[in-house]
Amino acid sequence: MNFNANTSSRPAFGRKVKRVSHVDAMGYSPYTPSNPYNNPEFSNQQYPSEYVNTQASFDGPKDPGYGFSPQTSYPNIQQQGINVFGQPIVQDIAIQYGQQLANTGKSMVQQEIKKIVPVTKLKYYFAVDTKYVMSKLGLLFFPFTHADWSIKYEQDGPVQPRFEINAPDLYIPTMAYLTYVLVAGLVLGMQKRFSPEQIGIQASSALAWCLFELAIYSCTLYIANIQTSLKLLDLLAYSGYKFVGIIASILLSILGEKTAYYCGLGYTNLALAFFLVRSLKAQVLPETSQQSAGYYENSVPVVGNCPHQSPNEIYKCRIEQLGNFFINNTSNYSFIHYYKYVYVENLEDTFCASDSLFEIISWKWLVCTV
Amino acid sequence: MGFTLWNLFEASLLCLNAVCILHEERFLAKIGWSAKSPSVQGFGEQPTAKAQILNLIHSIRTVARIPLILFNIVTIVLKLILG
């Protein structure tokens, strides 16, 4: 009587109790949605009266006028409820379920972060080591003797900065920006003009100029419709390299007076201009890809446009287009199909050989059309 | 002390406002800058600088209108409160 009444009155406890009985009876199945109200054990007529009774019983033990005492029924249920969670299987499943929930939550959060902040792209820009930083700083201060300004490309993109001195990184600009703010505060302090909000003003001002520069660059690139492999973060990196020169000239102004400052500013400006012109020339006007494009446009039917920038990708793209062209335009399907894939595969390891391959393909094409 | 992030925000807000209030029929159509004006561009040709500017203006007018209302309201309220 007590047992039935309590199960029906408090669904939470009732379910637990019922689970226990079922576990004992037929093995463990905790997550089957069991509704005590539909259970045939309880008749519908029995139901409302017991409900009323137990409601009253939970109001408190001060009411002794009922047929049963709550003191006996309550601990009984609690004990059985604890028993459910005391079972090792239940614990395991609960732990597993919790871990699953936590993992899904973690991955969702990571995906959301990845949508907002391009983490993998940023990782590329911070892949630096000490040797790279030292040589890059040397390059920034004395770029005049550097000969090779082109960036090497791997299969899927440019080489990381730590292996390629010409690749733009974001580590030097970030550190230079922070150092610039601190050094500016230092100099202001030496001139007795420092106040704590000056730091914030300097930081905000420098950042604002950078963003302004970035906006102008991207607007110019868009309006002049310049096809380039430069991305927004590359532009940010190149606009951030100027802080290195600014820091140097400010430090010179501590040592000497105004003349030292202006001399330093002039020299670093010159060096930075030289550096930027050379490295951007290599990026905005990629000679190799232009040459190859001009060469192959004469000898090879180009179907569609090549959106890729690196020479390797342009070759690949052209070869694939050529293969498609053959397949569409000639009857000798299997022959062409075979060559298309052989050439594309060869391309992966013998990059230089693709020139001669291209000539072979063009020759074959001529033969086919004739 | 010159040019801060807040100044940059205000300046870009005003510029975007200026682009957005250009009237399509009363102003842009008269000087031939309307988005509906026929653009002569062959297949595969690079679009000219003028076409790119027009495209940019049109995109700003399309995309930035609703957010601009919000940003303007926020700025006005801030200005009213902080002076």
TrEMBL record, chain A:
Entry keyword annotation includes Membrane: yes
Membrane topology reported for the UniProt record: Multi-pass membrane protein
Entry's transmembrane regions: 170-189, 201-223, 235-253
Domain of life assignment: Eukaryota
Cell location: Endoplasmic reticulum membrane; Golgi apparatus membrane
Keywords noted in UniProt: Endoplasmic reticulum, Golgi apparatus, Membrane, Protein transport, Transmembrane, Transmembrane helix, Transport
GO cellular component, one term: COPII-coated ER to Golgi transport vesicle
GO biological process: one example: endoplasmic reticulum to Golgi vesicle-mediated transport
Main location per the UniProt record: endoplasmic reticulum
PANTHER family, per database record: YIP1 INTERACTING FACTOR HOMOLOG YIF1 PROTEIN, YIP1D-INTERACTING FACTOR 1, ISOFORM C
Role of this protein: Has a role in transport between endoplasmic reticulum and Golgi.
Name the UniProt record assigns to this protein: Protein YIF1
From TrEMBL, chain B:
Subcellular location: Membrane
InterPro entries associated with the record: Yos1 (IPR013880)
Keyword Membrane: yes
Gene Ontology terms: cellular component: COPII-coated ER to Golgi transport vesicle; endoplasmic reticulum membrane; Golgi membrane
Residue stretches in coiled coil: none
Signal peptide bounds: 1-18
A Pfam cross-reference name: Yos1
GO BP annotations listed: endoplasmic reticulum to Golgi vesicle-mediated transport; protein transport
Primary localization class, coarse: membrane
This protein's record includes keyword Disulfide bond: no
Keywords carried by this UniProt record: Membrane, Protein transport, Signal, Transmembrane, Transmembrane helix, Transport
PANTHER family in the cross-refs: IMMEDIATE EARLY RESPONSE 3-INTERACTING PROTEIN 1
Entry's family note: Belongs to the YOS1 family.
Function field: Regulator of endoplasmic reticulum secretion that acts as a key determinant of brain size. Required for secretion of extracellular matrix proteins. Required for correct brain development by depositing sufficient extracellular matrix proteins for tissue integrity and the proliferation of neural progenitors. Acts as a regulator of the unfolded protein response (UPR).
Record-given protein name: Immediate early response 3-interacting protein 1
Source organism (scientific name): Popillia japonica
